[in-house]
Amino acid sequence: MSSCADSHVRFHVLTLFPEMVSQGLSASVTGRAFEKGIISLETINIRDYTLSKHKKVDDYPYGGGAGMLMQAQPVYDAFRATVDRINESGGAGEKARVIYVTPQGRCFRQDMAKEFAEERDLIFLCGHYEGIDERVLEEIVTDYVSIGDYVLTGGELPAMVMIDAISRMVPGVLKNSESAEIESFGNYLLEYPQYSRPEVWRGKRVPEILLSGNHEKVEEWRLEQSLVRTRQLRPELYEKWTAENQEYFIKKAKKEERARRKALKQKKALGVP
């Protein structure tokens, strides 16, 4: 992976397991984006910055308790070295956002991915053991972010999840420029059902509307399906969408009323009671 190459977004991950991060992000969409220089990834091994001759980065917490705590010194020195490299490459290291992945943080959402994608440099701090000395967190962290209400062994997997989601918001990363907008959560709605060949599989047919070639009708169907799915699975998102799109329901009601009147008129013309 490149260290601080010229790209749209540069990710810097402070971790005890750099290979885990670099290998996990080297394939598929992010891997291709790294190769094209659209985004870049630098993994920094915190252990390289410890002053311990035995490469120790953890110690027992004051006050007792289970487990070990990552020490402030190697984390801070790894951070300072990263900031210096960002500055040397023409960036503004001191202004870079530092994301500490922790279950105590704000829950990561699509709007956060969009927000982070606008940054030039993002530094991710991955904890391990029982966490990190609070003093260094107070010194360097700008954003405390969680990917859910559960505990993982370390911050590497959450960091990779966020980097993947953020990368998809960076122009040029996805082949289809519209993909990031029409996927789930792009506008509060979950994605509509999708189908591919064959037309019939195990007795289940592709909805006829998708075979009609009528693009306007297809888009209407997809929106309706997204609304149904969101209302069923994520009612809180459905409420947000409806609150911001009242005009949609007004237009829909008017369209249905026109269709009803047209049907009645046709029945009268045919003499149908």
Describe this structure in words.
With 273 residues, the protein is an alpha/beta fold. It has two domains: 9-167, 3-Layer(aba) Sandwich (Alpha/beta knot); 200-270, no CATH class. The protein is 43% helix and 16% strand. It is built from ten helices and nine strands. The strands form three sheets. Strands 2-1-6-5-7 form a five-stranded parallel β-sheet, with helices on both faces. The protein has a two-stranded antiparallel sheet with strand order 3-4. Strand 8 (200-201) and strand 9 form a beta hairpin. The termini are far apart. Mean pLDDT is 91; it is low at 1-5.
* Secondary-structure element pattern, one letter each: EHHEEEHEHEHEHHEEHHH
Distance between the ends: 74 Å
Q: Number of DSSP strands?
A: 9
In angstroms, what is the radius of gyration? 25 Å
Q: What is the global morphology?
A: elongated
- Number of helical runs? 10
Strand order of the largest sheet: 2-1-6-5-7
Supply the number of structural domains: 2
- Given the helix and strand composition, which structural class is it? alpha/beta
pLDDT below 50 for ≥5 consecutive residues: which ranges? 1-5
Name the CATH class of the largest domain.
Alpha Beta
Mean pLDDT, rounded to whole units? 91
What is the fold-level CATH name, i.e. the topology of the largest domain?
Alpha/beta knot
Helix content: 40-55%
Q: Biggest sheet: strands, sense, closure?
A: 5 strands, parallel
